[in-house]
Amino acid sequence: MNPSVIREILKVTEKPGIISFAGGLPSARTFPVEAFAAACETVLRTDGPAALQYASSEGLPALREWIAGQLPWDVSPDQVLITTGSQQGLDLVAKVLIDQDSTVLVETPTYLGALQAFTPMEPAIVGVQSDAEGIDVDDLAKKAPGARFLYVLPNFQNPTGRTMSEARRQALVDTARRIGLPIVEDNPYGDLWFDQPPPKPLTARNPEGGIYLGSFSKVLAPGLRLGYVVAPKAIMPKLLQAKQAADLHSPSFNQRMVAEVLKDGFLDRHVPTIRALYKHQCEVMLDALTHEMAGLDVQWNSPDGGMFLWARLPAGLNAIELLPNAVDKGLAFVPGAAFFASDPDPRALRLSFVTASEEQIRIGIKALADTIREAVKG
């Protein structure tokens, strides 16, 4: 097991005066504190003893039913397992599907937390070539023989912010079905679209050929530590056994609070406010990049949702080496190398635009530009 590069960087951001584009933290301004205060009172008053007691490993039936009913394909609540954050879902999938030296395929780059979850099982993690539309299906077909599964984040990916196109999704699902490759689809950011929702999930196109992971962290609050796994019925018993061995069950009190908050269509009213905030934050960062990076050979993308954008430094620069100089100027970011299964791009970096204020974004991007100019001059 290896330490999280991001968690180590977050320690730096605790220093006074540091503007952080590093953490993948939702904006605390989006947390529905009042709704949870009311739900807490209701749960303790009406169902207190059960909320504070041990519970079933599968999760609260009402919450599993709600999740099944929200998904855009036919799902039974029996196929839903509540997890302690979607990160635990990755851990359970790894324990059930990975053996030592087996092959696991991932996007290039991919979510660092998935690499951390998979690595203790000692697989061979193989990166599949990817572009702005997502996975390169031809490269996938070459590398797929013998692989246990492909792990993919189609929507507003962490770290790049890219979204897999409709054509690429269908080609990926068709190829995976043809060669018998399971897909583990991670979708924590799918509801955070700016102007229009992303194409339908991969799992909806082939439900028996994939495992789907979701989370309440980005639409409600990460401190609840609640996520879920949706899987074919044949694999659920093994995932449940792994869950029981890990922590018996996710917090029953938290599950009841979430079910109470969700029961009256709360997300339909709440999530649009998150989208509007994040869209504005993203636009501010893109505008600042355009203004401050003038004359520098810096590249970046323009995401359609989510929390991140992906940037690339001028030739010859290294994001890891640049970071201490940026911190000296009051800015933290995440070097992109940590997100690669192999052959990392030393020039890449991830910028999160959701937690900093508008003023902090402009100040931080200027600090980044100043740091890059100094490095280019040598």
Automatic annotation (TrEMBL):
Entry GO MF terms: transaminase activity
Matching Gene3D superfamilies: Aspartate Aminotransferase, domain 1, Type I PLP-dependent aspartate aminotransferase-like (Major domain)
Keywords from the UniProt entry: Aminotransferase, Pyridoxal phosphate, Transferase
Cofactor(s) listed: pyridoxal 5'-phosphate
Domain Aminotransferase class I/classII large residues, every copy: 34-368
InterPro entries found in the cross-reference section: Aminotransferase_I/II_large (IPR004839), Class-I_PLP-dep_aminotransf (IPR050859), PyrdxlP-dep_Trfase (IPR015424), PyrdxlP-dep_Trfase_major (IPR015421), PyrdxlP-dep_Trfase_small (IPR015422)
Protein name according to UniProt: PLP-dependent aminotransferase family protein
Naturally occurring in which organism (per UniProt): Hydrogenophaga bisanensis
